[in-house]
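User: Could you check the structure of this?
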Amino acid sequence: MAHRFHFQKKNPKALCSVRRAVPMAMLLIAGAIAAGADPGKPRQDRGSAKAAPQERGPATTSPQEIRAAIGHLADLDYASRVKAARLVRRSAASQAVPALLEAIKEHKDGFVRFRSLILLTGFNDPRAADEMTAALSSPNDRLRDVAYGYLELHPNRAMIPRLLQALDKEVDDLVRPSVIRALAAVGDDPKVKEVLLRDMTRGVDLFRSTVIEALGDYKHAYAIPTLVQIAKLEGPLQDDAVIALGRIGDKDALKLFAELQRSGSKELQPTLAAAICMLGVNCGSHLGYLEKTLTFASQNPGYQELVRPTAAGLAAVAIGGQDEGLRILFDKGIPSMDPIRAPMALAVAKVALRNTPLMLSTLEKRTDQSGAVDLVAEGFDMLEEDLEEEQFFATVRKSYWAAADNAPTRRLAERLITKLDF
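Assistant: Sure, the predicted structure tokens are below.
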């Protein structure tokens, strides 16, 4: 899923965000620019809600307590709404799900309905699918956004006609990218193929970038000829097209990449290195180049513009399963300072959401685990990805409950629960 970046999250009902529309390269540009911004979950506030880990499994909570907590999901006070969400997450599904379903349908506060729909996804209840279908028709753009995001996570070819209709009729520009990604997730249906190829070459760059990234993420080879043409053109979409070609994995792209290594800008070179690595060609040497680039940029302020594409490339490699890419991001990101720290924090946060097993296994092995978790938390601070974050939280929470006492997995989960306030 693509990601959204926000500058202010203190008021949960007034997010100033570029929501799900922002693909990786644009996201990391924003992160570098806004490194000094005051995020809505301030770094110094992390842990202020005093997350208390649980012993084993869901807590026994009364329906009255759960309904009361749901009513606080939209509180302006950060600690209050975090505490409320935590109580709901840790409750037994048999108690929490009915209360969440009731709130989604009946609560007068639209933001509470939105947060309830998000929390519902963490329980893996089959009734969530019906709620998402109903939310597609909601006048609340947040609910529609969650519903399309859910359809990306749970592709359903029967929904293709409705998604195609939504792509033509969706009036909220911040929701349309979620429709695009849900369509990309369903496969290579001829009608879907037609509209995605069309939208890759028309409209504003932001939406074209979303289509390019989605086609790469889902490895749709039919997009290769158009991606090649876009990758040849200097501009904001060039990085996206190169990464998409790397993700699809067709080694015929090597000829283009070789040409771009000779003619492309210095800012494009890290992206090319990452894409060639994703093709399985000389990956070790290209990762070495990316690591040296981060070292050089951190020591030479005039080259900080190289950090963004380098961090983005390493994240793409890590999401594809290369743990060495994530190792480099942590090694260079943990001791760093802003402004170069922000793009690396955003990159590791994206890996956490897109390849959670790799992130958890890597964190468990880090001897500097506390600093690594801090970097992840800072990246989460700069993302506004409620649905994907909830899936991450649910995975960590289940691993905490399942792990043996004093096991490394349990200690890591406890540290994440405390630091990320869930």
